Amino acid sequence: xxxxxxxxxxxxxxxxxxxxxxxxxxxxxxxxxxxxxxxxxxxxxxxxxxxxxxxxxxxxxxxxxxxxxxxxxxxxxxxxxxxxxxxxxxxxxxxxxxxxxxxxxxxxxxxxxxxxxxxxx
Amino acid sequence: xxxxxxxxxxxxxxxxxxxxxxxxxxxxxxxxxxxxxxxxxxxxxxxxxxxxxxxxxxxxxxxxxxxxxxxxxxxxxxxxxxxxxxxxxxxxxxxxxxxxxxxxxxxxxxxxxxxxxxxxxxxxxxxxxxxxxxxxxxxxxxxxxxxxxxxxxxxxxxxxx
Lengths: 121, 161
Prior knowledge:
Oligomer: heterodimer
CATH superfamily of the largest domain in chain B: NADH-ubiquinone/plastoquinone oxidoreductase chain 6, subunit NuoJ
CATH architecture of the largest domain in chain B: Up-down Bundle
Low-confidence stretches of chain A: none
Radius of gyration of chain B: 20 Å
Low-confidence stretches of chain B: none
Radius of gyration of chain A: 25 Å
Structural class of chain B: mainly alpha
Number of strands of chain A: 0
């Protein structure tokens, strides 16, 4: 068994611990709590003013542009990962490559900024 | 059974169950969450078979960004308020699903057959990074141009004026 699998086994153990912790907490609550529901208790805000209006209001479509910007920079972040584990071996050359890569994408951010996509007003 | 084989069956079952949940639930928000879970399972399978970079891409791009885009779509269209989705095209959907299954199954059987797949890292990420930043550096920089084009295109399409 190589180091690779031993390292990921730690991730798997952590995942199992998280899952068991979450499920165990819910199971513990379900066993311990008194079950006396009523309408007042099931309300979204048990104390305070009752909610008014519909559940949903049309959010600003601009949120979607932010999500889109996020996707683009997420792909950029993905390429940072193989770069981060090799740049020491490749030296300045790799650093310049990544700077060029990020600089090109920075033009996109500058474009968005210039087009006032990032403004909320 | 060896440990990786046990891990494989657990992850495969998790992926299959969450995928089934994705298509069977009638609530779109639950469906998106099921999709995220099934993609995480697929990512874990990729990592199990030694394709670390593909697995990370799956988690970072698909779970982290594409499912988030779905969530934004659900939020912006207000589908979450009337989340029950169904229509009368079930037979057509079943037919398409069957056709996709047959094509994928035929592809997998013809390329692997009875060949045993080993749990090993055939192409380590360090090697991938090395190749990417030496041999394939021009396509790599072209990717950033492509991303730039996608970004500008999205802004042009989404702006109100």
